[in-house]
């Protein structure tokens, strides 16, 4: 075989990056229940700072608070301009 191509994947374990990162998944989601709204807001601020560090264009951050029996649920959608930024953000949370 002369070159690595997507057709050679079974032989050389190669894959075209475009088949993995195709900009169809640019939203990262986060969900957690906190004892208080103040704790949820602190986490929102910290995660927003991490998102801002990964963005090249403004990331759309949409938080939602829901009162539950055991506290406050915080759901957040982080929508980036490209999938690579989404992955950088997600990996930075690990």
Low-confidence stretches: 1-5
N-to-C span: 39 Å
Main sheet: strand order: 1-3-2
How would you classify the helix and strand content by structural class? alpha+beta
Percent of residues in helices: 25-40%
Shape: elongated
- One letter per element, helices H and strands E, the order comes to HEHEEH
What is the tally of beta strands? 3
Strand percentage: 25-35%
Can you count the helices? 3
CA radius of gyration is 18 Å
Overall mean pLDDT: 86
> What would you call the quaternary organization?
single chain
Largest sheet: 3 strands, antiparallel
Question: What features would you highlight for this structure?
Answer:
3 strands, three-stranded antiparallel sheet, elongated, 28% strand, disordered N terminus, 94 residues, 3 helices, alpha+beta
Task: Walk me through the topology.
Blueprint: H1 9-12, E1 27-34, H2 37-54, E2 60-68, E3 71-79, H3 83-92
Antiparallel strand pairs: 1-3, 2-3
């Amino acid at each position: 075989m002369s070159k690595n191509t997507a057709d050679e994947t079974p032989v050389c374990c190669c894959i075209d990056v475009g088949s993995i990162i195709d900009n169809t998944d640019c939203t990262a989601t986060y969900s957690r229940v906190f004892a208080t709204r103040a704790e949820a807001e602190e986490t929102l601020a910290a995660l927003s700072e991490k998102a801002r560090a990964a963005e090249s264009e403004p990331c759309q951050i949409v938080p939602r608070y829901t009162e539950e029996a055991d506290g406050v649920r915080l759901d957040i959608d982080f929508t980036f301009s490209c999938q690579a930024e989404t992955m950088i953000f997600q990996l930075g949370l690990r």
